[in-house]
Backbone:
């Protein structure tokens, strides 16, 4: 089946540790996105990539890093520099004119202890 | 003020009721999305519209470009409709999300 997978669904880390969240898609989409969701707030864009080997910062990129070495994969690293990393992280991929149709993964809930 | 505002924040209804969720946006858009987020967190796209009205089953989405307002209607609501409904305004590869409306439909 075509779709977007994120793993793991739940992730626990100690403060000060870097952690990498996985996002894979087999939809052959060029564009991929990482969003963060906090209670009572809309999704906020962390990073996005419109093509392999290229990515751009979103609204809240500080403390995060990404790579796009393959079309199918867009991993997100939450570094120790991110002051408030506990959140729900959603990955999406896009198609259509200007990639305006986005398909979302199931999300990863990260808790930093 | 957020660029995309939804109302109400929370909505509780009895099964069978007609539901309306509202979305107002202050940015220019090329498309307006309605998304459904299930309790487990996964998000499903319901509608993408840039004018007029779209219908899918019991769901109807409308948009008024001049007033920068969109509504999502659910007819004959059912407990399985319980979810968070999110409005998102898209323009020039930039998506702005509302905070969501949490809908609970009681049997």
Residues:
């Amino acid at each position: 089946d075509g779709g977007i997978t994120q793993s793991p669904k739940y992730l626990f880390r100690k403060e000060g540790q870097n952690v990498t969240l996985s996002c894979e898609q087999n939809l052959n989409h060029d564009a991929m996105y990482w969003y963060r969701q906090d209670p009572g707030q809309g999704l906020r864009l962390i990073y996005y990539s419109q093509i392999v080997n290229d990515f751009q910062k979103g609204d809240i990129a500080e403390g995060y890093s990404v790579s796009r070495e393959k079309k199918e994969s867009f991993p997100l690293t939450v570094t120790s520099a991110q002051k408030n990393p506990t959140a729900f992280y959603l990955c999406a991929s896009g198609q259509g004119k200007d990639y305006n149709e986005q398909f979302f993964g199931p999300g990863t809930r990260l808790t930093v202890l | 003020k957020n660029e995309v505002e939804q109302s109400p924040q929370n909505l509780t209804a009895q099964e069978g009721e007609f539901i309306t969720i509202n979305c107002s946006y202050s940015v220019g858009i090329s498309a307006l999305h309605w998304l459904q987020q299930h309790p487990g967190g996964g998000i499903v796209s319901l509608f993408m519209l840039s004018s007029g009205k779209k219908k899918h089953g019991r769901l109807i989405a409308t948009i008024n470009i001049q007033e920068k307002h969109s509504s999502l209607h659910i007819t004959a609501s059912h407990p399985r409709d319980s979810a968070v409904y999110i409005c998102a305004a898209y323009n020039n590869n930039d998506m702005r999300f509302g905070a969501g409306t949490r809908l609970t439909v009681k049997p």
Chain A touches chain B at residues 31, 33, 35, 40-45, 48, 50, 88, 90, 97-107, 109 (CB under 8 Å). The two ends of chain A are 35 Å apart (CA to CA).
